[in-house]
Amino acid sequence: MRKINEIFYSLQGEGFHAGTPAIFIRFSGCNLKCNFCDTQHESGELMSDKDILQTIDGYPANMVILTGGEPSLWIDDLFIKQLHQAGKIVCIETNGTRSIPASIDWVTCSPKQDAPVLLNRMDEVKVVYTGQDVSPYLELPAQHHYLQPCSCKNTKEVVDYILAHPKWKLSLQTHKLIHIQ
Ligand SMILES: C[S@@+](CC[C@H](N)C(=O)[O-])C[C@H]1O[C@@H](n2cnc3c(N)ncnc32)[C@H](O)[C@@H]1O
Ligand SMILES: Nc1nc2[nH]cc(C(=O)O)c2c(=O)[nH]1
Ligand code: SF4
Ligand SMILES: [Mg+2]
After folding, report:
1. Which residues hold Mg(2+) (predicted)?
2. Which of 32, 110, 151 to mutate to test the pocket of ligand 3 (most atoms within 8 A of CB)?
């Protein structure tokens, strides 16, 4: 059984795949407590893999995004294998502090201050920018390095930083701009 906060269908709002229809599986709980976290993830119900797969089967997209909370607390090789057998491309949103199954197709690592990154394979880095020194995160081995405004509030500050440090790209939380989940 895996503790699920919510399962919903929307567009990936952030990062490289922004605009892509995806089924979100939001797991409960996290090993960090970021003061800016925009998600109430603690509540949830234990679901069997059969029930999870049956729920996602009701949506037409082939992309699944594992998020939370911190999805690495709840997933294993068997879970990813079952999603693949259901024909899904599996993406994860993780804070990068815990290991994850190697079979995941797309890894978004969002490192947090004072929480060392343990992952050594990732496709994109996506840092919530609050004025901290983000230069060490450019060393993380990803194809894409994004800075994301915090709750859409400091977009100008982030744009100015990126213009001065052009190895970064902008990730907006586009779902919040168009008022979808
Ligand atoms: C809620 S987290 C869940 C996954 C994982 N725990 C993590 O932090 O990557 C999903 C994404 O939202 C970002 N995020 C959380 N709070 C935010 C906020 N207030 N503004 C912008 N992005 C935020 C996180 O950094 C992460 O990239
Ligand atoms: N539309 C939409 N896109 C997202 N991308 C990452 C999200 C997350 O909370 O992990 C998220 C989310 O909550 N909604
Ligand atoms: S690591 Fe992710 S889910 Fe956990 S508190 Fe931070 S932003 Fe929220
Ligand atoms: Mg979100």
Report:
1. 39
2. 32
